[in-house]
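Subgroup meeting minutes
Present: P.N., E.W., G.H.
Scribe: E.W.

1. P.N. recapped why we're keeping a running log of single-chain structure predictions: easier to compare across weeks, and new members can see raw inputs and outputs side by side.
2. G.H. added today's entry (377 aa).
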Amino acid sequence: MPEISLPKATQSTLLIVTTTKLITALLLLIVVFSGLLGVFSKLGLSQHAQIGLTILLVAAISWITEFVPLFITSLIVLAMTLIWLQPALAQTSTTITPTVFLAPFFSNLILLFLGGFVLAAGMEKEQLDRRLARMILSRSGQNVPSLLAALMASTAILSMWVSNTATCAMMIAMLTPIFNNLPPAASTRKILLLGIAFAANLGGLGTPIGTPPNAIVIEYLKKIDSAPTFLEWMMIGVPGAILLVTLAWFLLLTYFRGFKLTTPLLTTQSLAPWNRRSLVVFIVVMLTAAGWMTVDLHGLSTGTIALFPCIMLFGTGLLSQQDLRHLPWEVLLLMGGGLCLGQVIQTTGLADEIIAMLPLQNLSLYWLTVVAGTFAC
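Output recorded in log:
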């Protein structure tokens, strides 16, 4: 058989990828053996904190380099926790069980994300996404700045009530008809997609339920009787979100020189008329959003409310088992791994020990906020 030769550019790319994989694998081995041999004890960390630091470094390196698929890293975190950390904790007087590390993979936050994904699937199936895309285009036209502003505003508003990831997935699914009209490498496509991503993140700042970190912070604030009400949070979060979304809009258009770009109008493909199925999906979307907006009134968690669209859309046959298989389960596993890693850091005392090492005692509140924000980023 004739020998197949790859182009030099392809060979160079493969060489770079292979070299990067080998370096990453070597770095991961060094980290793991450092944890096993107690090298991190030189930092003054306890045994449990050393294991926690090892798991944290393995997760960070794997996620940043994408050495393996992101959701596989989440499963690696869980495996290391159950095989290595939990037995070490069991040898002490602690009563921490494996359930503590398993629970994040089906926690309230995971249910919240699942509900958002199910809503997006229902809207796509009944063409509510196309209706919204056509409505946005009919008001913004072909001008990219106005179209981007409309998309980012819609995404930001939605992300205040639906989780950021679910909102982003839902908006991209809704606007697929628009993206299909654009060349794959077009600047317009990049501007619109990045605009949705940025607006989904920034809009989530607006309400306590907009993004999981908000809910986590409120839980901690409740423990010290300092939690703001829903309205108090919005009085700070909404103006901040508006300012940041506007800044992101300007930066995207400046970077991609998109102020003079135009986009093709949506194809005139006819939409199915409103029927019972689409009406039920619309009602479920509205009721779920209303439930998330009124958490303080009825006391149900956002995850519990997210069960409603799952039960209604699948229970009534509006979504099928095939639709269930197509949900982005890898995102839920990724989120579960992140939450599990948070439990590792908390239960091992790693965060407390690291903070104790930092010279923060003499810092003003302003600089303490800067340091904390930088570490969070």
